[in-house]
Amino acid sequence: MMRNLYAYYIAALVAVVLLFDQKAQAQDIHFTENYATPILINPALTGLFNGSGVRITGIYRNQWRSITKDAPYRTISASVDMNTIPGAFANDQFSVGLLVYSDQAGDLRWSTNHFDLSFGYASAFGDFDNHYLSFGAMAGGVQRSVDYTEARFESQFDGTGHNGLIPSGEDLGNDNLFFVDFSTGMMYYYAPDRRRNFFFGVGLYHINRPVINFVESNPDHRLHAKVSAQVGGRVPIGEDFDLLPSVYFLKQGPNTKMDGGVYISYLFEKNRNSEKAIGLGVLGRIGGDQYDFLGTDAVTAALRMDIDQLTLGLAYDFNISNLNNATNGRGAIELAMIYIIQTKKRSKILYCPRF
């Protein structure tokens, strides 16, 4: 019965993806340290972490400061999720979470504030030990705003410079917008122990294609669907070293992005329930649109510390796109944190994907 439900869900998700028009009008935010934004990456990752309790995540990104010193692009995201709710069958779990993020960009302070409730259900895959399927759904609200007082128009030039007291003569429309948003996803993973796992997931975002136009006379300007895929894992390469490779692909209309890379982790203390490790990562990003398909974008150097239930991350993107002429290679810096509060012991330890 459960396998039939899985098959129906997968077929429905694939059908919806194929039916969506892929001409998007906007591109979502992104981070480099994807392991610190699990719910944002895929709603099916809600509650997928080792142990039973509550996970708290936070991440901060600052980019393009080298070319927009007075108006940097800043993004901050945080989430909390818990997996202490038992499922319908042994080793199943039901999870709930909350995701928020805030993004501000450019001179006009283009702002996006997002908050979502997420739900996940992970179930053992038939009679196969350590094989699981997880399904997720997410719903919430989005508020967008723009500061027109910082806009500059040719009609406001008074002969010597810009004069904000001169009317622009432009019909700028509203400066604030709110809409609801829905997303879903699924993930398969195999995790026989703490140091070995493999995962593959897909996600579909903006299912309802909300109107995102500030001008009321144009209600057909919609945010189109986004499709994502994630694949990766963790494998020991020695008594104290692990490799953590991963690839993350996004498609949103003409916009395409793919992150890929690997962390090498040195475990200087480990036991059955926790570990202490330091990891170094080299990551790459390619992206493009209908004019420049999958051109080079950035190379990232990353550092990660795992200390029992606490993870700290630092990453820096070196820009290698055509924008390099203006940035001199400088891109974005990210700070990340994950903390897991163990609140409940299980009779059997269930391991989850580790990014």
Unreliable stretches covering 5 or more consecutive residues:
1-26
List the domain count as a whole number.
Answer: 1
Order of helices and strands: HHEEEEEEEEEEEEEHE
CATH top level assignment: Mainly Beta
Going by CATH, what is the homologous superfamily? Answer: Outer membrane protein transport protein (OMPP1/FadL/TodX)
Query: Based on DSSP secondary structure assignment, what is the total number of beta strands?
Result: 14
What's the CATH architecture?
Beta Barrel
Description:
The chain is mainly beta. It has one domain (2-342): Outer membrane protein transport protein (OMPP1/FadL/TodX) (Porin, Beta Barrel), CATH 2.40.160. Helix content is 7%, strand content 52%. The protein contains three helices and 14 strands. Strands 1-2-3-4-5-6-7-8-9-10-11-12-13-14 form a 14-stranded antiparallel beta barrel. Strand 2 and strand 3 form a beta hairpin. The longest helix has 18 residues, at 2-19.
Question: How would the blueprint of this fold be written?
Answer:
Layout: H1 2-19, H2 38-41, E1 53-63, E2 73-86, E3 93-105, E4 110-124, E5 131-145, E6 176-193, E7 196-205, E8 226-236, E9 241-252, E10 255-270, E11 275-288, E12 295-307, E13 310-319, H3 324-327, E14 330-342
